[in-house]
Amino acid sequence: MIDFTSGQLVGWVMSIFWPFVRLLAFVSTAPLFGENMVPRRIKIALAALLAFVIAPTLGPIPDVPPLSIAGVWLVVQQVMIGAALGLVMRLAFGVVQSTGEFIGMQMGLGFASFYSAALGANTMVLGQLLNTFAMLLFLAFNGHLILLDILARSFTLLPIGVDELHGDGWWLAARTGGILFTAGVSLALPLIATLLTINMAMGILNRASPQLSIFSIGFPMTLLAGLVVITFLIPDLGAFLHRLFDTLFERMLSVVGALAGRSTPDALP
């Protein structure tokens, strides 16, 4: 007969509860796992399953009552860490979605929109198309497995119960927006430059021949040129997103290391 005390039972529950909080915050904000189409019960079940698997590999868990002031602060810490890691990666899909919508506006496809259950709002067709490509490539590159690996390693780099989180980590996470802005401009620049050249040509043609109806030929020209440029860009989209994903994976590890006060966290294998 196996006997255990109430103290042992509480210790086992707490050893799963503390990683569960960080994992749930990550699952709720990370791409693929945190989509609106995924039911909340599935997110909670996934976080609980990951916590159950990761808990035996963790070191000593702090003996802090969850309903105490220290326990509430520890919960807030774990939520902030998990949400920061998930949001850093989600920004990659946000920049792809925004770039696609901006390109669609320039092509004259602003009217082509539909309701997206993933975002809970109306989105343009081109933005949703590029976002779908990004999701499929993310799965093809095993990005979901790398995310889980980084999250598991975060418990080693930044153990539960650390005294304080260094501000350099939050500053590093905020500076990720600069990387994504550069990536979005690089992705949209070829098509924007092409459409700008066509619009300038249409403007010069309108000044040279006012009787020519620019509106009747301008829209088909910009739409056709946009489709042609996108056709040439799609084959290179995989390499572009692969570099972007690798950069953000490294940034996630850097954020964890900076939060823990380490300047050079372990790199990805």
Main sheet overview? 2 strands, antiparallel
Query: How many beta-strand runs?
Result: 2
Can you tell me the number of structural domains? 1
| Unreliable sequence segments | 264-269
In the sheet with the most strands, the strands line up as 1-2
- CA(first)-CA(last) distance: 45 Å
Q: If you compute it from the alpha carbons, what radius of gyration comes out, rounded to the nearest whole angstrom?
A: 24 Å
Helix content: over 70%
- The general outline is elongated
Strand proportion, as a percent range, falls in under 5%
* Structure class: mainly alpha
Order of helices and strands: HHHEEHHHHH
Layout of strands and helices, then pairs:
Blueprint: H1 6-29, H2 40-54, H3 69-107, E1 113-116, E2 121-124, H4 125-140, H5 143-157, H6 167-174, H7 176-208, H8 214-259
Antiparallel strand pairs: 1-2
Helix pairs in contact: 1-2, 1-3, 3-4, 3-7, 3-8, 5-8, 6-8, 7-8
Could you walk me through the main structural features you see in this protein, from its secondary elements to its overall organization?
β1 (113-116) and β2 form a beta hairpin. It is built from eight helices and two strands, in the order αααββααααα. The protein has helices at 6-29, 40-54, 69-107, 125-140, 143-157, 167-174, 176-208, 214-259, and strands at 113-116, 121-124. The relative contact order is 0.13. α1 crosses α2. With 269 residues, it is mainly α. It starts with 5 loop residues before the first helix and ends in a 10-residue tail after the last helix. Strands 1-2 form a two-stranded antiparallel ribbon. It has one domain (6-259). The protein is 73% helix and 3% strand.
